[in-house]
């Protein structure tokens, strides 16, 4: 296996790893209001997220910007919670008929902005893999491609699941959105409450 293939596999496994499911939750939350018929809107939305996390992944891995990893670990579940809550306030007609979803234009800058935060989280993992390695451009590219492949797989699974529930089982879109987004919000809230920095803030021990 070449170095490129190794880092591509690591990127794919990192975002698709069920043990570190925070990024999976965020991608699913982005797709929660959509079905397979909305694939073009989903593609634009996921591209916005990709642009955001690719930018900060590169900048942080190249050590052009610095950040506190514990703060990023705390912010990531907050982005998931906010996205899930926004989904639950999204207006979907009370019908079992499936039509293309009208997205708020605010979803795209939201995905881009939250992508910046997730990219910093990806970079922490990549930096730990690279260590003192000097040639990081190829690993950075391969890792990012792996992330995108994993992300696309998650999106595909989410949209197929929505198709089965909405198109085949005839569950109303608004019901599916509320159930899925509610579950994601609950899991994100659990991640926040169990976060070490959150506990430190609650105890009054957080320092700048």
Automatic annotation (TrEMBL):
Key words, A-Z: Membrane, Transmembrane, Transmembrane helix
Parts of the chain that traverse the membrane: 20-36, 43-65, 71-89, 110-130, 150-169, 176-198
Key word Transmembrane helix present: yes
Top-rank taxon, per record: Bacteria
Keyword Nucleotidyltransferase on entry: no
Name of the featured protein: HupE/UreJ family protein
InterPro entries: Put_HupE_UreJ
């Amino acid at each position: 296996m070449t170095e490129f293939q190794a880092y591509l596999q690591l990127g794919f496994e990192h975002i698709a790893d069920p043990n570190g499911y925070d990024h999976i939750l965020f991608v699913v939350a982005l797709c929660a209001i959509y079905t397979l018929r909305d694939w073009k809107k989903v593609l634009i939305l996921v591209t916005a997220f990709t642009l955001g996390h690719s930018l900060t992944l590169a900048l942080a891995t190249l050590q052009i910007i610095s950040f506190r990893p514990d703060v990023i670990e705390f912010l990531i579940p907050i982005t998931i919670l906010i996205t899930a809550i926004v989904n639950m306030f999204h207006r979907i007609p009370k019908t079992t008929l499936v039509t293309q979803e009208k997205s708020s234009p605010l979803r795209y800058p939201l995905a881009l902005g939250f992508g910046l935060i997730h990219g910093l989280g990806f970079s922490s993992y990549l930096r730990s893999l690279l260590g003192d390695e000097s040639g990081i451009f190829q690993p950075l590219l391969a890792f990012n491609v792996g992330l995108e492949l994993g992300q696309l797989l998650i999106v595909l699974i989410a949209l197929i699941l929505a198709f089965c529930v909405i198109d085949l089982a005839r569950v109303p879109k608004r019901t599916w959105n509320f159930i899925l987004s509610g579950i994601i919000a609950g899991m994100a809230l659990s991640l926040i409450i169990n976060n070490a920095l959150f506990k430190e803030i609650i105890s009054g021990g957080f320092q700048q």
